Amino acid sequence: MIDFEPKYITFDCYGTLTNFRMADVARQLYGDKLDAAQMDRFVEYFRGYRLDEVLGAWKPFRDVVANAVRRTCERTGMPYDEATAAKIYDAVPKWGPHPDVPEGLARLAKKYRLVILSNAADEQIDSNVAKLGAPFYRVYTAQQAQAYKPLQKAFEYMFAQLDCNPEDVLHVSSSFRYDLMTAYDMGIRHKAFVNRRHEPLNPYYGVTEVSGIPDLASQLGL
């Protein structure tokens, strides 16, 4: 059980709530040009370059995706096509939640104020949030913060907007690299790791592991 009553439950969106299918779309677009092993490498490089692209000064998410595709193509010897990169970016608003999410969020929303902090563009996030099926008190994006997670500036923006402190929230994510390591560094004591199997559990960072959002609600006594 999570023995804590947060002022807010703050969530990562893409990957944690929304089924983030960027690797799937890359496979659809490049799978006929690469064999299975090459495609696996392409997806891994693409994942790494997306993280690298958000670590500096803020840039539009469209540029993050395009630059990551371009760098991946250069590394794998594939020709880069701007229109193909745009197809990956344009797919994002179409994605809906993981199957467990609507039920779990509905239970949580009966008691708690729910907040999203997402590495998203303003023009995309409303479509994704609408598909989650629950009311959110606030939704903040990297575009608004002018910083992407894992930079602390993104979290600082959220805390300033909510007029609260790190110790006031329960932060929920399926990613240590983007969220939970930074949350630990910032003094967010209460953290939940939603194990979506795309990153391993790392107990060092003081998280409560949950299998999904309904499990999170159960851990909070709902």
Automatic annotation (TrEMBL):
Annotated keywords: Hydrolase
GO MF: hydrolase activity, acting on acid halide bonds, in C-halide compounds
PANTHER family, per the entry: ACID DEHALOGENASE, PUTATIVE (AFU_ORTHOLOGUE AFUA_6G14460)-RELATED, HYDROLASE, HALOACID DELAHOGENASE-RELATED
Pfam family, one: Hydrolase
Protein name: Haloacid dehalogenase
CDD domains: HAD_L2-DEX
Keyword Transport: no
Keyword Coiled coil: no
